[in-house]
């Protein structure tokens, strides 16, 4: 119960000060978006794709790998 209260206090404080972070980062918005996109692409390539490929069911993992790559390509192009 104490952890729930601490978590809710932390989330409330983060919500309260998020407007000041938004104003501080608004001039660096493109750089922040590029950084987040780079981190997510790195995570996808170095962690998720090898994990999907190493699944025991080889044929299904190849199909799953295809859908993961197709979904990432679709959403990153928009």
Question: What's a concise summary of this model?
Answer:
The chain has 78 residues and is mainly α.
Written description of the protein model:
This protein has 3 helices and no strands. The chain has helices at 2-25, 29-53, 58-77. It is flat. The termini are far apart. The relative contact order is 0.07. The model has no long low-confidence stretch (mean pLDDT 77).
Kindly estimate the percentage of residues that lie in beta strands according to DSSP: under 5%
Task: Name the assembly state.
Answer: single chain
- Which value, in Å, is the CA radius of gyration? 19 Å
Helix content: over 70%
Supply the key terms.
78 residues
List the helices and strands and how they pair.
Elements: H1 2-25, H2 29-53, H3 58-77
């Amino acid at each position: 119960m104490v952890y729930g209260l601490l978590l809710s206090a932390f989330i409330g404080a983060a919500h309260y000060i998020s407007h000041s972070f938004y104003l501080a980062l608004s001039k660096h918005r493109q750089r922040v978006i590029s950084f987040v996109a780079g981190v997510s692409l790195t995570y996808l390539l170095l962690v998720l794709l090898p994990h999907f490929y190493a699944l025991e069911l080889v044929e299904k993992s190849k199909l799953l790998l295809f859908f993961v790559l197709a979904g990432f390509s679709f959403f990153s192009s928009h």
